[in-house]
Amino acid sequence: MDWDDLRIFLAVARAESLSGAGRRLKLDAATVGRRIARLEEGMGAKLFVKSPQGYALSESGDRLLPHAEAAEQVFAGADEEMSGIAGQLTGQLRIGAPDGCANYLLPQVCAKIAEENPGLEIQVVALPRVFNLSKREADMAIAVSRPTAGRLTVQKLSDYHLSLAAHRDYLAKAPPITCKEDLRHHRMIGYIPDMIFDKELDYFAETEAEVMGLASNSAAVQTRMIEAGAGVGIVHDFALPFAPGVQRVLGGEIRLNRAFWLIRHADDRRSERLTRFAEALGQGLRDEVARLEHAAVEI
């Protein structure tokens, strides 16, 4: 058994399909299947059970998994040790993040980290859902609430704020808004209710608004709807500098407090490379939230 066989085994275990593993490994599915068959023959045991849903680990596969993950950590540590260039970060790192963070914060933060580490490839996956780090969908993920289950390490990155807002052109022609009760006379913009993947995104529970006229599962799309003068909605304060003409409404009554959390797989705590990147990401995110929220004070 060699590391390359274990690498392919881990990819299939995480993707739960030959094609998915092949995409990650840049191999065709047939090659992945042959390599798994060769590994199973060498071990004298079936490692996967094939079903219409894909490839699930067998009892033998379950026993092999922690050993394969331990080998992965050893090889990753050796690679980090040997490939560092004058203390710089290298290789590929993937971050999963909610789209508000990914659209308005991570471009600036990652640009700075990339400039300081030219050999580093940073991938940002912006999806409105929770990432599965056990399946290695990402090396680390940013979330809006602290997870309570799983083999994870969790670090608070930064507090941030959100405000009720509308475009000045909309406010000029719409009925005045002097209290929460006035919101019932306005078109509200927010999340699609059955696609809210985290309770922290249920903003309208705090506004007492009754009817939503426009909705999206994307915070960035909601902000663009508000910028287009379509109605009133909740906007990240750090997004306000990117939305000309959008201004706070009922600032004294409605201002929400939330936090970003950085989530990593527990096994990665021994990775100096990931820890250094997490530190740079955290500091950059805190600085960028502070900078943009300060700029938003003038709006």
TrEMBL record:
Pfam families: HTH_1, LysR_substrate. Residues 1-58 form the HTH lysR-type domain. Keywords: DNA-binding, Transcription, Transcription regulation. It comes from the Bacteria. Belongs to the LysR transcriptional regulatory family. This is LysR family transcriptional regulator. It comes from Thioclava nitratireducens.
